[in-house]
Amino acid sequence: MAALGIGAFIVALILVIVIHEAAHFAVARAFGIKVTEFFVGFGPKLWSRMRGETEVGVKAIVAGGYVKIAGMNPYETIAPEDYPRTFGAKPIWQRALVILAGPATHFVLAFVCFALWLGFVGQPTFTSPLIVGVERTLDGVASPADAAGLRAGDRIVAVEDLEAPTRDQLIAATQRHVGEPMDLTVVRDERTVTVVLVPVLSEVGGEQIGRIGVELGPGLRDTAGVVGSVTGGADLVGERLVLTIQGVGRIFGPEGLGRLADLVFTDEARQPGDPASVVGVGRLAGSLASDDQFGDLLFLFGIVNVFVGLLNLLPLPPFDGGHLTLLAIEKIRGRPVDMRKVIPVSAAVAAFFIIFTVAVVYVDLVKPPV
Length: 370
What we know:
Layout: H1 2-30, E1 35-51, E2 54-69, H2 92-121, E3 123-124, E4 131-134, E5 137-138, E6 141-142, H3 144-148, E7 155-159, E8 162-163, H4 167-176, E9 182-188, E10 191-197, E11 200-204, E12 207-211, E13 214-216, E14 221-222, H5 226-251, H6 254-265, H7 278-290, H8 297-312, H9 320-333, H10 339-366
Antiparallel strand pairs: 1-2, 3-14, 4-13, 5-6, 7-8, 7-9, 9-10, 11-12
Helix pairs in contact: 1-2, 1-7, 2-5, 2-8, 2-9, 5-8, 6-10
C-alpha cells in the first residue's frame, strides 16, 4: 500500500505539472501568441512530436515543465512575420493572464481536492474512536477487552448511556467504573454489539490507572453534502493559503535558513515543523496509504497545490510571480523591462532554490520526518 500511495503522489505531481503548463499554453494560444514547445521535465529529450507548430514531449528529469512562448527569451531569433504573435506584442493584460493561468490552476486543483475530500472521505472527528489493537493481558491477567471479545476494527459508538463518546469521555468512564461493570457498544462488520466489561487498575508510567486494554485510533469521519463540500473546500483553500504564507515566511527567513543549515551540518534532530521535499511528502503519502487512509491523499494533494501555487506567485524571476511583477513595472513606467538585465537575477534566484531543494532532500533522506 505504501508503494501505491507514493506512486499516486508521483502521478499526481506529473499531472499537476501538465495542467499548469497546459493553462499557460491554452491562454497564450487563445490570445494568438505562438507557442513553439510544450515539455514535461528538463534535460535530455526522451520523446516528442509536433502538434501543429508546437513541439510536445517529455524530457528525462521529470521535476517540472515549461512552455516556450515566442518572444519571452530576449536572445531568441524571431522571424519578422511572427512579431505580431510574440508575447511582447500583446497588451499587458493579456500577457498577465497568460502568466497567471499557470499558478491559478493550483488553487483550482486544491479546491477540487478539498471539496472531494470533504464530500467523500470526510474530516476526522474525535467521536466514536476505532479500536486498532486489543491487549491480551494487563499485568499478567486477561485484559477486560480481550475477555469481553473486543477486536481490532471495532468502533466504539456508546459507553453506558453516552452515545458517540470521545476518547477523553471513554477514558473518564473507564476511570469511574474501575472494579464495576460497564456497558460498551461497538459496531463490528455493520452489526451493533454490546459487551459488559470491568475496568481494572493497571500500572502505566509508575501510576495505577483504570484500563480495559485497547489501543484507540481515529474517530468517525464527518462528511459534507454538496453545498458543504463546495463552501468547505473554498474555506480550506483560504485557511491553507494563510498557513502557507506564514510557513514560507518562516522557512525562507533567517531563522528558517539557519535551522536548515543546522539540520544539514549538525546532529540536530528533525522536528515536525521542519520543511519537507517531494521525498518527505512522498513518504507521507506512502504512510497514509499504509494506514488505510488513502482518501486523505486528497487532502495532502490539496495542501501541496496551495504551496506550489503560492511559490509560483513569489515576485521573483524566474517564477510566474516575477513575470507578473515585471509587467507591473512596465505598466507603471510605460516601457518594457530589458529582460537581458533580468537574466542574472533569475539565475541567482534559481541557484538559491536549487541549493535549498537539494538541502531539504538531503535532510529528508538522512533524517526522515518523525
